[in-house]
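Hi C.,

You asked whether I'd gotten around to modeling the 127-residue construct. I have! Everything is below, sequence then structure, no commentary in between.
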Amino acid sequence: MRDDEFVYAVIADHAAGAEDWDKILQKQDGKTHLERAIHKAVNSKFDAGVDVVIVLSSNEAVLDAASDLGAVAHMVPGFFDTVSMIRTFATAPGVDIDPNDDPWIVVIDPYTLELAEARQMSEIKAD
């Protein structure tokens, strides 16, 4: 948690403009890019840590693998950019984010394992 709000690590598959489009399940050094990114999220020292890892994808195989690795997996259109994917997730039926909460979102690139600057959900929705 950060500032009494949850921290969600988001791994977006099929992000627009990604050079490694649709390669998230390919292995590098014995682990898939997805597995490496989920482990990075879980082991990150982002403030007090990541509470939930969310994988957004249009690929059922990716979502199945994410679930098997303990992440929340959610189907979104693959042609969306990462911010649009997050907005789609946050407003989807069945996604239960308390409207009084404003979780922090940190995006993890599944290929470079870089963590983007954290933003609150309200800021992402306002973009």
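If it helps when you're writing up: The chain has a mean pLDDT of 85.

Thanks,
B.
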